[in-house]
Protein: MAPEG family protein
Amino acid sequence: MSGIQGIVYLILAACLLPYVFANLAKAFGGFKLTDNQNPRGFLANTTGLAARANAVQQNSFESLPLFIASVLLAEYMVIPQFMIMMLGIAYIVLRILYGICYLANWSSLRSVVWALSMVCPIWLLISVIRLSS
Structure:
């Protein structure tokens, strides 16, 4: 996979990931069709595993703008495709691992994995800055 197609797949995967965790939160919390009247209220009242899955969902949405901006800027500034793909895939894998750590309630490891996931888009942005200087 090369060129813009790979970039689109990276962005699509990153954009869908929060919904995976949202659905897990609903499943773990016992979401029923009647809860669809107020799904945010339902999720806000969950505890344990469901609440942790909801927190992963929220954090995944929070980190998404930085990732999308960094990938698009890197592509626009013609950062080597290999580097964009490597850091993009690493970000997605680390975000999945972050979610697993959160669900397992491994708070220290979760923080380390979160920091590593944030290094990926920041590294891309620093590469853009260096190229444009």
